[in-house]
Amino acid sequence: DGGITQSPKYLFRKEGQNVTLSCEQNLNHDAMYWYRQDPGQGLRLIYYSQIVNDFQKGDIAEGYSVSREKKESFPLTVTSAQKNPTAFYLCASSIDGAGGGYNEQFFGPGTRLTVL
Amino acid sequence: GQNIDQPTEMTATEGAIVQINCTYQTSGFNGLFWYQQHAGEAPTFLSYNVLDGLEEKGRFSSFLSRSKGYSYLLLKELQMKDSASYLCAPMDSNYQLIWGAGTKLIIKP
Fold this sequence. Notes:
The complex is a heterodimer of chains A (116) and B (109). Chain A contains no helices and eleven strands. Chain A is an all-beta fold and 116 residues long. In chain A, strands 2, 4, 5, 6, 9, 10 and 11 form a seven-stranded mixed beta sheet that branches. Chain A starts with a strand and ends with a strand. Chain B is mainly β and 109 residues long. Chain B has strands spanning 3-5, 9-13, 18-25, 32-37, 44-49, 53-57, 60-65, 70-75, 84-90, 103-108. The termini of chain B are far apart. Chain A binds chain B through residues 35, 40-45, 48, 88, 90, 97-110, 112, and chain B through 4, 8, 30-31, 33, 40-45, 48, 50, 87, 91, 95-97, 99-102.
């Protein structure tokens, strides 16, 4: 079955620790995205990647880092510099992030990170 | 700036019809998506409009007016499982989705 996987579903970390959230897709999509969702707010873009070995900052990139060494994988590291990391993190992918009109994003199940 | 405006919460009765409105201002426009999100889960795709008019898909329909910066999602024959948040997301000139905060729809028996 094709899809996007994120692990783990729930993650707890102590304040000051870096943590990496995984995102894998087998849809052969070029573009991948990381969003953060807080209660009562819309999705906010952290980072996105339109092609392997390239990525761009979104609206709230401070305190986060990513890599895109493989087409299928786009891990997100939440660093200790992120002031308020507790949130629901969603990874998504689309066929083409560089334009071309219809560009539906498919989402993984999300990771709920709690920093204690 | 870019802005999306949707009602925060709506309540409707099982079997009825509900219309969720969305107004938007974006830098350029390349279509508009509606997604459904159940509590604690990921958003799932409902519809995409790029031209003015109504797109019908089963119990769900979506309407777009580009000149007015306006869209709505129409849900018919409401079922309890339709209780969820509905997210309006226009695509800007860079083909990035701009997400609204969503409308929480509560269905009562």
